[in-house]
Amino acid sequence: MFYKRFIRYLIPMVIATLVSGGLPAGAAKEGARKIVVFTEGINEAARDQLIARTGGVKEKDLPLIDGAVVVLSDKASERALQVNPNVLRVDDDVAVFALEHKVNTQAAQVLPWGIDRIDAELVWPTGNTADPINVGIIDTGISKDHPDLKANIKGGINTINPRRSWNDDNGHGSHVAGITAALNDTVGVVGAGPSINLYAIKVLGANGSGFLSDVIEGIQWAVANNMDVVNMSLGTSSDIQSFHDAVTAAYNAGVVVVAAAGNSGGAVIFPAAYPEAIAVSATDSSNTIASFSSRGPEVDLAAPGVSIYSTYKGTGYATLSGTSMAAPHVTGSAALVLNTAPGAYDVNSNGAWDPAEVQAKLAATATDLGDPGTDNLYGAGLVNAFAAVQ
């Protein structure tokens, strides 16, 4: 009898895992996990009472969007929250995935072709290595002991479990970090901004996936800890209002948001599709759009994203392809721009770069590819770090 009950339980679980591609890291074992956004002016105690009365269990608060992550036992609980006048909306806490396309290996090199292609190495002799620009890598973490990264890593957080390390147990985040800011030390590789202050914002687990709410908390941490740029080489096909609200809040706080367009070959995914984010498509060594790269009117810039050699988990190196690899080329370029005076791009005359001004400079100095002008494959064109800092 026990065996039959176990099989009846196990088979649906196996099917669900195969269909979904695996459960997100930290997935709740029971109940539906939701993002509840409250109306303005409702204090935390009142929110907690409301959640408890509807049979929910609060996982954590998301003050950036006036929300909380709540596990609900049934649909009745969700309906009760949706009709409550103190609740603005109830969003699904969807799965978010790292946008890695493939993995292989190759011999070490000092200057990866992508960094060479965007002419970042021409900027460094001028004294601009993006020191002291703060860049948050919202991803699977960063390898804390990697010799090509650790001198630039200044801290971080694990939003999946704040009691645990932000160290990378997947490799994706470390690869992104290396493209952004690997040290210029003649060992291994070098990143676009080799003196950037790196911050590991671990929102995805060892399997490269996680909950949207953990990503939102990562954005929240980035704003609170004065990040100048955040890189999100991750995404979801679901347009969730709470996600858009978080990206907008970061943008309004002066954070440049760079995101990978996606690897489906189809429509641009979120958060890249949001207008407040710089959406980046991927090109190969012939400056041609990668077959896997998402495309559409939301694409702002293109960058190298095929066979990119960079740092990996532990102390290793790997070659990956994906818009995940393209985005950090733009992130590093944005950091180099932020280390210059805005000049004529200071539209609001505040003496500092704003996210829209950084994007305008990167777009105006990009190398036009494809159809003349802005197009759905390359946006304004291939990012050019050297032209952007002139």
Secondary structure class reads alpha/beta
Radius of gyration, CA atoms, in whole angstroms: 21 Å
What is the domain tally?
2
Largest sheet, spatial ordering of strands: 8-9-7-11-13-14-15
Average pLDDT number: 90
CATH superfamily label of the largest domain: Peptidase S8/S53 domain
Q: What is the percent of helical residues?
A: 25-40%
Along the chain, the helix and strand elements come as HEHEEHEEEHEEHEEHEEHEEEEEHHH
Q: Give the termini separation.
A: 75 Å
Question: Can you put this structure into words, describing what you see?
Answer:
The chain is of the alpha/beta class and 390 residues long. The protein folds into two domains: 22-93, Alpha-Beta Plaits; 97-388, Peptidase S8/S53 domain (Rossmann fold). It has ten helices and 17 strands. Strand 8 (153-158), helix 5 and strand 9 form a beta-alpha-beta unit. The longest helix has 19 residues, at 2-20. The radius of gyration is 21 Å and the shape is globular. The N and C termini lie far apart (75 Å). Mean pLDDT is 90; it is low at 1-29 and 102-109.
